[in-house]
Every structure is written in C-alpha cells, then in structure tokens.
Amino acid sequence: MKVDRQEQDEARRERIARAAFELFARSSLDEISAQDIARAAYVSRTNLYRYFPSKVHMLLAHFEKAVQASRDDALERLRAGANPQLVWDRVTARMADLGVRYRHLVGAVGQAVLGAAPDQPGAAREGGLTRPGDGLRTALTLAALVQPVLLAMQTQGRLRPEANVQLLSVLLVDAFILALLHGGHRDQREVLRDWQERFSLLMHGALSPDTALRERG
Predict the structure, then answer these.
(1) Of the four, 51, 140, 155, 214, which is 20 to 30 A from 208 by CA?
(2) What does the alpha-carbon distance between residue 76 and residue 134 come to, in Å, rounded to a whole number?
C-alpha cells in the first residue's frame, strides 16, 4: 500500500512538472500563475505546493529528468563501444539545442545551477528558490551527465590519469551554462562555438600529451 502511494505521489509530481514546463515553454515563469499550472495538472493549488514550493522547482524537476534521459543514452552508447568524442558531441549538441529553443528559461536554470551551494539560502519569493542548496541537485545531475564521457576518455588515455574528472565535470557544466547565458547568441552553432572555446581553456593540461599534440595538429 505504501509503495502504491509513493508511486502515485511520484506520478503526480511528474505530471505537475511536465504541465508546468509545457506552459513555461510557451511563455515565461512570470507570466504563468500557480493557478494556471494547477489547472493544467488537474490538481488543487494546495496540492501543487505540497509537491513543489515554487515554479523554479517545477522547472528544475523537468530539466533534471531530461538530463537524466540524456545521461542514460550516453551511458548506453559508451557501453556499446561508441567513440567518447562522438558521444560528447551528441550530448553537447542536444544541450545547446535545448538551450537555444528555450532560451527564455535558461536564466532561471542557470541562476539555480551557478548559484548552487548547500550552505546558501535561496531567494524567498514566489517563483524563486526557497531552501538551501535548491540548485545543487540540478548542478550534480548535469555533472553526472558529463562525468561518464570524461571517464571513458581517461580510460582510453586521452586524459591524464591524474586528472580530477569530478572537478573537471563541474567546471565544464559551469562553462556550458555561462555559454548559454551569453546574450549574443543567435543560434545553436554560436552557443557551441562559445562553449568550445571555454572547453578548450578548461581542458588545457587535462589532456594527455599525445592527445594534446593531436589536437594542436
């Protein structure tokens, strides 16, 4: 009985997050009210806040689910023996595409991820973060998407064996969010170009000597 209740709660939580994102995708967080989301998700406003304390939490929940799906796909390809560089290109291209398509939502996600810290309280306001470390889970989810690809590169000898893959993953996520937040982008190609420049700087010193020589060549 308890399992059934947990499954029902999780299904309702996913339904709310999906309904909220569909509304946000057509408009913005500020223009969508809690009542709009409750109506679209077929729940009461009271129930809405039982699952999510703010609209940003709803956005992050949907975002985390999409990132997890991308991670599962990347892991499956790596297990099947795919070239880590090709998997990497696929992951970053998808992230850039989503970032450009929903650029009006990037600010909210970026602020949560870049400002994530377990000992810092969020902004106590409607639509904002209300608990310490609210963006931390999203930041860790993104880092968990990047880390398996870097580990595969390290296993193949493309990264130095002493390179801290966990730290590098976090730095690369921050770099990508900053690339999306950059105001001058008009399309996916520009986002990827900006990110690639940041990526090259961050990867300097992490690549194995042979790989670095091939990259320069």
Answers:
(1) 140
(2) 29
Question: Cβ neighbours of residue 53 under 8 Å, at least 6 residues apart?
Answer: 130, 131
Letter for the amino acid at 47?
N
**CA-to-CA dists, residue 45 to 38, 62, 123, 207, 212, angstroms:** 5, 19, 21, 51, 55
- Which residue has 């390809």 as its token pair? 77
DSSP one-letter code for 124: -
State residue 116's pLDDT score.
55
Count other Cβ atoms within 10 Å, centred on residue 152: 22
> Contact 134/112 with Cβ under 8 angstroms?
yes
Q: Hey, what domains does the chain have and what are their CATH numbers?
A: 1-52 (1.10.10.60), 59-216 (1.10.357.10)
As a whole number, mean pLDDT of residues 8-34 equals 93
Tokens 């057509």, residue located = 26
> Are the C-beta atoms of residues 17 and 61 closer than 8 Å to each other?
yes
What average pLDDT does this structure show over 175-196?
75
Bridge-partner residues for 159, per DSSP? 207
Element (H, E) at 206: none
| pLDDT of the residue at 17 | 95
Question: Residue 61: phi, psi to the nearest 5?
Answer: -65, -45
**Residues ≥6 apart with Cβ < 8 Å to 71:** 141, 144, 145, 148
